[in-house]
Amino acid sequence: MTSLDSRVAIVTGAARGIGRGIARALAAEGASVVVADRDLPGAESLAEELDGAVAVGVDVSVEEDVRGLVDATLAAFGRVDVLVNNAGIASAAPLGETTLDEWNHVLAVDLTGVFLCSRAVVATMAGQGAGSIVNLGSQLGLRGAPNLAAYCAAKAGVHGLTKALARELAPLGIRVNAVAPGPVDTPILDDVDEATMAGILAEIPLGRVARVEEIAPVVVLLAGDSGAYFTGSVVNVSGGHVM
Q1: How many separate domains does the chain show?
Q2: CATH of the domain at 110
Q3: Is residue 1 one of the residues assigned to a domain?
Q4: pLDDT per residue over 43-58, tens digit each?
Q5: Catalytic residue annotation
Q6: 147 contacts: CB under 8 Å, gap ≥ 6
Q7: Domain of 86?
């Protein structure tokens, strides 16, 4: 893969899970990483581990926070080359038990947050004549799942937003892609009971969940010059769960 030396990358939701792995992978390729998360102590802990990284506390569903994130990035590094929209939440409940507040909260973080962060970096990336936005979608935005209506709707929206922005921003030199992971070995799976997990594994042709280290390199590819001909793609990394 092409080195990301001299590139500046913002990763939202980077304090843990997939985002943490992505931040580490981008830093390993030479990028200066802005570790952005609502959990500022967690973000600061990771930033201390990565050479030249900075931590910024942000709620991606709050417009003022997002503006502050981009302002802090420009103050620290003077540019933004890569935005990884990874921050996300989920709320599981049958449709009839899903409240409007729960629905709105999931969409605000998982979809509106992608819109706000993407919009906030466009002027800077356009001024540079280049940039890469990588959105974390989900296989559930492709195949759906019971009791996860808000999450599935939000992730399907991320996929659609990715394609719309790819068409709109290509003339400005900005590429926009998404990664749609299947189940990944992160703490979020700790809440899945044994019977449910057995059912999930039975549906995955490769017979296991992914490791974070198998998702992060796809983001690195899309972020850098080696992925220069990717735009508008939703890259399915699900072990065959979706095909």
Answers
A1: 1
A2: 3.40.50.720
A3: no
A4: 999 999 999 999 999 9
A5: 151
A6: 92, 93, 94, 95
A7: 8-235
